[in-house]
Design goal:
By secondary structure, this protein is mainly beta. It has five domains: 6-38 and 50-187 and 302-432, no CATH class; 190-224, no CATH class; 232-295, no CATH class; 447-597, no CATH class; 613-728, Immunoglobulin-like, CATH 2.60.40. Helices cover 10% and strands 33% of the residues. It has nine helices and 36 strands. The strands form ten sheets. Strands 19, 20, 23, 25, 26 and 27 form a six-stranded antiparallel beta sheet that branches. A hairpin with a 2-residue loop joins β15 and β16. The chain is globular and about 95 Å long.
Length: 732
């Protein structure tokens, strides 16, 4: 067993009581720290947003990938629940987004952290802070390019306490952690008939209506060619940079492409110089003065600046956050080509003071006249292969990483210290989680994740269910397999994604069979798409025999090797084979058979027997009349082989027609099943806490199992049923 040094053991005992006993204090009083605004419990100690141990340092967004990200800085050697050989603790991050009408919940993520001793890297720099990156996928509200969408994003970092869900909790403050806000830019939607009519109606009166003939296609995108980059003359006019003007943007900025081509290390070309001189003169610009100004420009941060760099180990990608600071200087608006911010990534994985170039990522940016005062933050994401950089848990591995930002011209791929004209350089220390190392030249057939869950968290040799306890999703570590946090074992359903390492140059095949069957099984040969790290997707289509060719891991955004569109409720087995050619004779590695239990059946309402979801009002009161102020009672059934949870609600429940929620009688936790023909009692007081108006209402019962559906947290087999009643107005 790995133990801490004596000095660190003593230091652990000196951790603040509020840290060391955090969960115990909350169990005694959920409002111990005074951050529950509507609680009747009296706070013991007012304590919020303490950043002694961790803090958010950046929030950003990648418009092309629709990924929100935040970087978390860990600053202390202790206080995180143990070494990497122990459980550690979770840093939760919940995102909220405001398009101008109030906060919307944008999702929860997190990262597992551990106690890692202080130290110095090979260059003598302290290894703290350690920077972790976390991400969520965003489904944004987009508009066409004429209408920039620049929402505000709020991220709440909270150690060991997941920030509450729901837009109303955007103001919640964590005891340990902090809140950070930034503005982002949403990728414009494609033009459509509907958006064209919307634009026209903003500028004309009377309004015109889209003909009904086109109603069914009004949202379909109109195919348009990509806009060409603006030329030198057009940019000079745009930025008022012609002779005698007061330029909004310097000529050596917007003319960088031509100037860089004249100053690069290639062979001298008199013809090129003459052609550029003529073009600059025609645009009323001074070529020599601009060349002189460019020669004095190095690592200028007035337009853009790298602010954070971290490692998202869940998705195995480095993330650099940079800020755009000005409304102009990016070669065109959102309806034009704009320009590229290039970020080159480097790593010193083994602390040898030798940088290895990893790749360069481009992020498209534009002139945006109404840019917020704090600018806009963007994220550059580069997938990295960590498969041969791991160490055992008793040897925590900290690596150095570097990002180099350069506007319009890519950074050097050979000199990690080189800085271009506009941009800057940033270094960070990151932790590489413990694990096995793999030789890319000696492939090992091993599935990493099934249905979003690491195979280590599944009983792959017995039941095919997730293990008991708080098993977490591989790429969403803030979310447990049992979405209710009770650690119950879970089956799988829907689309089961299968993930593993990529071995370029090799072929692989996935086969499956029902447990108990004898034989080779059948190939999983459904075609699927793998998102590229730059733009678009790679379409994976099976070759003869169900074989697929491995993709290049440096070019892909995920490590998906197969998609199984499952059905039924049986126990299945999956095996992975790797071959040098797409045939059985060249197989070089075969995995064990991995068991996985399916459950694709939602809770069943009547007339199924037995029904596992049902609701009624007592005394045959379904669809009957009651007087306003009455208390209505009934029974409900909520059950399933892999029961998850239930909820009761009353509809409508609006500002105009408010209603009260039914309550289980006697009390029953919503994670406890209500089985049997008699079910469980419920009661609805129509007079308190609000007086329900005369109206027609339904009492709705929602029931979910805990099957992991479509490989995503919070997605289950669910069903709902209702009973109805009317409230009559009392006679005067």
């Amino acid at each position: 067993m790995h133990t801490l040094p004596v000095a660190e053991t003593a230091a652990l005992a000196e951790l603040p009581h509020e840290r060391h006993q955090f969960k115990s204090l909350l169990l005694q009083n959920p409002n111990y720290f005074g951050n529950l605004n509507k609680s009747n419990l009296k706070p013991v100690k007012t304590w919020s947003s303490n950043t002694t141990f961790e803090h958010l340092s950046c929030v950003g967004y990648n418009p092309a990938k629709q990924v929100l990200e935040a970087t978390v800085a860990i600053t202390q050697p202790l206080g995180y629940g143990g070494t990497p050989c122990q459980a550690g603790t979770t840093e939760y991050v919940r995102f909220f987004i405001d398009y101008g009408n109030g906060w919307e919940d944008a999702g929860l993520t997190g990262v597992r952290v551990h106690d890692i001793p202080n130290g110095h890297d090979c260059s003598g720099v302290p290894n703290k802070p350690l920077i972790y990156a976390v991400t969520v996928k965003l489904t944004p509200h987009a508009r066409p390019c004429r209408f920039p969408v620049l929402p505000k994003v709020r991220a709440i970092l909270s150690w060991q306490w997941a920030p509450p869900a729901g837009s109303a909790n955007a103001g919640w403050l964590p005891p340990w952690g902090n809140v950070l806000e930034s503005h982002i830019q949403i990728l414009p939607s494609r033009w459509s008939l509907g958006s064209i009519f919307e634009l026209l109606n903003e500028e004309i009166n009377p309004k015109i209506k889209l003909p009904s003939l086109f109603e069914s296609v009004k949202t379909l995108p109109i195919p348009l060619p990509d806009p060409a980059p603006l030329g030198l003359s057009a940019l000079a006019t745009k930025y008022n940079a012609r002779a005698g003007g007061q330029p909004e943007v310097e000529a050596h900025r917007f003319g960088l492409h031509q100037l860089a081509s004249l100053t690069n290390e290639g062979a001298f070309s008199a013809e090129q110089v003459i052609a550029h001189e003529a073009e600059w003169k025609s645009a009323e610009l001074d070529l020599n003065a601009s060349l002189d100004a460019l020669g004095k420009t190095e690592a200028n941060e007035s337009y853009e600046q790298l602010e954070c760099l971290g490692l998202d180990e869940s998705f195995e990608r480095l993330i650099a956050t940079f800020r755009i600071k000005r409304p102009a200087g990016y070669s065109g608006n959102l309806c034009q080509a704009g320009s590229q911010e290039f970020v080159a990534f480097w790593a010193d994985w083994d602390n040898t003071c030798h940088w290895t170039y990893l790749g360069t990522v481009a992020v498209n940016v534009h002139d945006i006249a109404n840019i917020p005062a704090d600018g806009l933050t963007y994220a550059a994401l580069l997938p990295v292969d960590l498969s041969h950089h791991h160490r055992s848990c008793d040897q925590p591995k900290v690596a150095r990483v570097r990002a180099v930002l350069s506007w319009a011209v890519p950074p050097s791929t050979s000199n990690p210290d080189a800085l271009q004209y506009w941009g800057n350089r940033l270094d960070a220390h990151v932790q590489i989680l413990p694990g096995e190392n793999y030789d890319p030249n000696q492939p090992v057939a091993k599935i990493r994740n099934l249905g979003g869950i690491p195979v280590e968290g599944i009983e792959t040799s017995t039941s095919g269910l997730t293990l008991s306890g708080n098993v977490v999703f591989a790429q969403y570590p803030a979310n447990t397999a049992d979405g209710w946090g009770l650690g119950r074992q879970c089956p799988f359903g829907g689309t089961v994604q299968i993930e593993a390492l990529f071995y370029p140059g090799y072929y692989y095949r996935l086969r499956l069979r029902k447990t108990g069957e004898i034989g080779a099984g059948i190939p999983i040969d459904s075609d699927f798409y793998v998102e590229r790290s730059d733009i678009g997707f790679d379409h994976q289509v099976a070759l003869a025999g169900g074989w697929f060719k491995y993709l290049d891991p440096s070019q892909e955004f995920t490590r998906t090797i197969g998609v199984w569109n499952s059905s039924g409720n049986d126990l299945w087995e999956i095996v992975l084979e790797i071959a040098t050619s797409p045939n059985d004779a060249s197989v070089v590695s075969t995995s064990p058979w991995y068991r996985i239990q399916l459950d694709n059946l939602a809770p069943l309402p009547p007339p199924n027997s037995p029904a596992t979801i049902d609701i009624h009002i007592d005394a045959n009161g379904d669809c009957k009349d009651f007087n306003e102020g009455d208390t209505i009672t009934g029974t409900f059934i909520a059950d399933d082989l892999y029961f998850g949870g239930w909820s009761l609600s009353t509809e409508p429940n609006t500002a105009a027609i408010p209603s009260n929620s039914p309550q289980p009688i006697p009390f029953l936790a919503n994670t406890s099943a209500a089985p049997g023909a008699a079910g469980h009692g419920w009661s609805l007081n129509t007079d308190s806490p609000v007086h329900m108006k005369p109206c027609g209402y339904v009492v709705r019962l929602d029931v979910s199992d805990r099957s992991i559906v479509n490989s995503y947290p919070g997605s289950h087999n669910s069903n709902a049923t209702e009973t109805a009643f009317c409230l009559r107005k009392l006679a005067p």
